[in-house]
Amino acid sequence: MEIDERRAGHNMREVYLIGFGQIPVSKGREMRGRYMAREAITAALESATVEPADVSALFVGNMMAGMLAQQQQLGPLFADISGFRGVESMTLEAACGSGAAAARVGFSAIAGGLHDLVVVCGLERMTQAPREQITAALATAADWELEGVHGESFISLNARLMAMYMKSHSVTPEQFAPFAIAAHTNAMNNPNALLHKPIDLDAYLGSKMLSEPVKLMDAPPTCDGCAAVVLATRDVADAARRSGAPVVRMLASAVGTDSLAIDRRDNPLTLAGAEISSCKAYEQAGVTPESIDIFELHDAYTVITALSLEAAGFAKPGEGVRLGEEGVTAIDGRLPIATMGGLKARGHPVGATGIYQLVETTQQLTGTAGANQVKDPTIAMVQNIGGTGATVVTHILGV
């Protein structure tokens, strides 16, 4: 039987993000994961003006706790310590897209009528482990049989993509620099960002070569972090709004996938999963790329920034770098990205990244982003990517 997804979508309930909490992204923080989660979740509940007893489900995004901390079942662990033991709780894994995957499940739970108020939390605690162990754990998000056993890492895989992009589109290293420079500039005004150090073109070009042509300033730092959001129905959101909570509507939630291995893709320089995810989200929200005021993308590597802009319909193939060069993606540009530093400078605590993106986008839409406030945004898109493009989760938020 053929199902018309658009028709089925008419039966969904409206979903609202009504509160958020985050802890500063850091390195070497002594606090263990459960206590980081409790801090972020408690802040999110206070922001939403709700109590732990109001929560009926918790969804956690995480990639590496089992490998780096020997701890699985983060859902019930975090529910217990946060004061809602016994509720539905589970952990979602989609590599670097784990946070948004958890948000997608939370969205579905509200939209589908299973719950009226849920918490979504993303956590990653990486820096307590040796670098070699972290690298090996991250590599599990690639295709182990086709890439991992041959010594490929995420740095080398992104280096392959960047080299292909440069050769195919006659792009120079300097053309990627604006993405990194802007991210560092924006992070200066984000108290929760890891890197508070501005860079210029010389610093970008002079940074350490990690894997030709990827330099240190093309890549995100290894770090720890945790963030949480509260999702709810329209009735709950209306009550929260009257209590002063920061309320935005989640207009769309969509997922697109592609092969894990780069060599199995029809075109390695097309993020097909991002194209699918973006198109589904646009259709669900009833908007077009021209409607988007902010694009909080997954700038894990500068080449992924360019490819994401192209896959989401903001630039033609090979022209994503031009948006950075021309200032289109700056805070005061037509399509701001990485408004609070992005993965590059806020930091990329893998399983938590997708939730930090939702938090920062909500700040923008509710006019609480401080010095980095974009002027009068009404619709924003948030995209979180697992691996080099295998799982892509897109959310569109509006006020």
Care to describe what's here?
- With 399 residues, this protein is of the alpha/beta class.
- The protein folds into 2 domains: 5-130 and 223-248, Peroxisomal Thiolase, Chain A, domain 1, CATH 3.40.47; 151-203 and 251-393, Peroxisomal Thiolase, Chain A, domain 1 (3-Layer(aba) Sandwich), CATH 3.40.47.
- The chain is 37% helix and 18% strand.
- The protein has 15 helices and 11 strands.
- It has helices at residues 5-9, 33-48, 65-68, 74-82, 98-111, 131-139, 154-169, 177-187, 201-206, 234-242, 272-285, 302-311, 320-325, 342-345, 350-365; strands spanning 15-22, 57-61, 88-92, 117-125, 209-211, 214-215, 224-232, 248-257, 294-296, 379-386, 391-398.
- The chain has a 9-stranded mixed β-sheet with strand order 3-2-4-7-1-8-11-10-9, with helices on both faces. Strands 5-6 form a two-stranded antiparallel sheet.
- A hairpin with a 4-residue loop joins strand 10 (379-386) and strand 11 (391-398).
- The protein is globular.
- The model has no long low-confidence stretch (mean pLDDT 96).
